[in-house]
Structure prediction request, 184 residues.
Amino acid sequence: MSSVPSLPSVLSAAAIGIGVSFALYIFRRPRIRIAKSVYLQGMGDLKVIKQTVGNKIHVTLDFGVPKLPFCSAVVTAAGTIYVSGAVGAKMDGGRLMVVPGGPQQEALQTMRTIEACLKACGAGLEHVTMVHAYLVNYSFERFDSMNKGYLEAWGSRPLPSRICTGTDHVGLGGAVEMDAIAQL
Prediction:
């Protein structure tokens, strides 16, 4: 004769399952710590602007010029960080401009900008899972040059997934733009 569980025991087991699931959700959520400022080579110390909208945190690096869309990130409650498209920029005489030196130097500075955005979000390059790269006037030589700067930024760290595509234009009239996805 088979035993049928009583309704109270089924409800008790369901409540325990829900409680365990909730506890795992709460304790596995990453602690998100937004910095007040970050250092970016070629830019100095940058103020970090934080805005919370719903369960997302919007983070923007303040370059001291009108708000720029390529210096920001969004952090979800689950700890996924979406860094907006960034270009290899620096301040020169109070003006924001692309670093000289072509795709290699632009890629290196672009990755420094992405790293600064990640630091503002409490993360680093080691948290990056995907990079999208855009290269103006895509050719083997320009790709090779961009790749040298990209690899210099990573050093000996493992590389994330990446795609690179050619395009006609990127921000500030540069040659390289990249965005990134990271997970705390």
Notes: The mean pLDDT is 88.
